[in-house]
Amino acid sequence: MLRKTVILLVVAIVACGSAYAQKSGKGKSREEMRKELREFKLKFIAQEMDLKEDQQKQFAEVYCKMEDERMKLFEQTRGIERKLKKEGEVSDEEYVRLNKTLTETKEKDAEIEKRYDGEFSKFLSGKQIFKMKSAEDKFRQKMAEMRHKKKSKK
Predict the structure, then answer these.
(1) Which long-range contacts (C-beta less than 8 Å, at least 24 apart) are formed by 100-104?
(2) Shortest CA distance to 142 belongs to which of 36, 37, 35, 19?
(3) Which pLDDT does position 88 carry in this prediction?
(4) CB-CB contact of 54 with 37 (8 Å)
(5) In whole angstroms, how far apart are CA 102 and each of 76, 89, 92, 96?
(6) Residues 31, 48: contact at Cβ < 8 Å?
(7) What's the chain's average pLDDT?
(8) Which of 21, 44, 55, 85: disulfide with 51, CB 3.0–4.6 Å?
(9) Cα distance between residue 111 and residue 45, in whole Å
């Protein structure tokens, strides 16, 4: 089981790394890369959770809905952060507003997670939900390591 997981993760990282390495216009679009990354992530998490065949489709549907909600939430926050970076000199009031927004985003994310825990519990065991959260952390960590290695090669 561990060997399968490692192999799947390596394949995901290599595929995602090569997708990100391609220049826009010559290769895949950003949307295609996101779709591929999502598919790899779903496969990785499902494997880590030991999902049964009848659970996999339902899991993917619910998980994608949750991820879409979370992505919209964080895109709004990133938009504010980008705007502040572009402005150069930023007032303390603007930083206070950004800090408040970041805190609210974390609270909303926790609300989304709590709501979807209820959805997942309709067809997953508590152990599987715990494994899902652990797998998400593991996946994020591996992706961060991959980005770090890519940056250090430049």
Answers:
(1) 101/77, 102/77
(2) 37
(3) 74
(4) no
(5) 10, 20, 15, 10
(6) no
(7) 83
(8) 55
(9) 21
